[in-house]
Design goal:
Blueprint: H1 2-16, H2 19-25, E1 32-37, H3 44-61, E2 64-68, H4 76-79, E3 84-89, H5 97-108, E4 113-117, H6 133-138, E5 144-146, E6 152-158, E7 172-178, E8 182-183, E9 192-203, E10 214-218, E11 226-229, H7 241-255
Parallel strand pairs: 1-2, 1-3, 3-4, 4-11
Antiparallel strand pairs: 5-8, 6-7, 6-9, 9-10, 10-11
Length: 259
């Protein structure tokens, strides 16, 4: 009987591999990501779709994601667990003081990467909170001024095609629906612009313009790899393969990992 069991075990190993080997081959996550987003408001539909997309990407690419809906947990010890911070849908005001201190240290000391979307440039006095001056500087010394409330379709032109985040992205592409924030001035003198929107292509046309209008940029003045991507309001963005490519590239570049 023992010989039969032994033969069955040997045959199983030959066909399917050792169960012990299978356990040994299970890989730990390549890196760890924390995603901050508001669990409510009119951007929630974007966040819902983004979360499904992110979870699939994380599974397929072997990294882990934790989600938080406020800054209550953020401090130095909390951020030390993550190689990438994604500010998916959260403004730069109303943060807990310990989160402000920890995040600033995370960026200034290059402890991890950062990818910010849309609301990250909602810089000013909102909901009774003062503007976070350091974050304004981080985003290029800008202050939010206005937006297109009825939304507009527009063409975005890539300015730095050689940047890793633009790999596989055409020289220009269409964004079907966005609010297109304007600021008190262009961030260009203080950041490195990756792409900008052509305001003459707004459909429908709008008088809410700022001339030079960057929408994707990095701030090379900080040790942390960082990139701001303005487009992040509507879930229809994920219908675009180009948008998904930019998002995916940004994650791996900011985390300092290969895709």
């Amino acid at each position: 009987m023992k010989k039969i069991i032994g033969l069955v075990f040997i045959l199983a190993v030959a066909l399917f591999g050792s169960p012990f080997c299978l356990r040994a081959e299970q890989k730990s996550p390549r890196f760890h990501v924390v995603v901050l987003y508001e669990n409510g408001g009119h951007h929630i539909e974007y966040s819902k779709v983004a979360r499904v997309w992110l979870d699939k990407l994380a599974t397929d690419s072997s990294f882990s994601i934790d989600y938080i809906q406020n800054t209550d947990l953020i401090d130095e010890a909390f951020l030390s667990k993550y190689q990438l911070f994604i500010q998916l849908d959260y403004p730069p005001y109303g943060w807990k003081e310990k989160a402000v201190v920890a995040f600033k240290d995370y960026i200034i000391r290059g402890k991890g990467g950062w990818v910010g979307f849309h609301h990250a440039t909602l810089l000013g006095e909102f909901d009774g909170y003062p503007m976070w001056n350091w974050f304004s500087g981080f985003m290029g010394n800008i202050v939010y001024k206005n937006y297109i409330p009825g939304f507009a379709k527009a063409t975005v032109n890539v300015e730095d095609a050689g940047h890793p985040v633009m790999k596989g992205v055409p020289s220009s592409f269409t964004v079907e629906k966005e609010e297109w924030y304007t600021y008190n001035k262009s961030p260009r003198p203080n950041v490195h612009v990756i792409a900008s929107v052509d305001e003459s292509t707004y459909q429908p046309g709008s008088g809410i313009k700022m001339g030079d209008h960057p929408v994707i940029w990095i701030n090379p003045n900080y040790p942390a790899r960082n990139i701001y991507i303005f487009m992040g309001h509507s879930p229809v963005l994920f219908n675009s393969g180009v948008y998904q490519t930019i998002f995916r590239n940004a994650i791996f570049w900011a985390a300092g990992r290969k895709s």
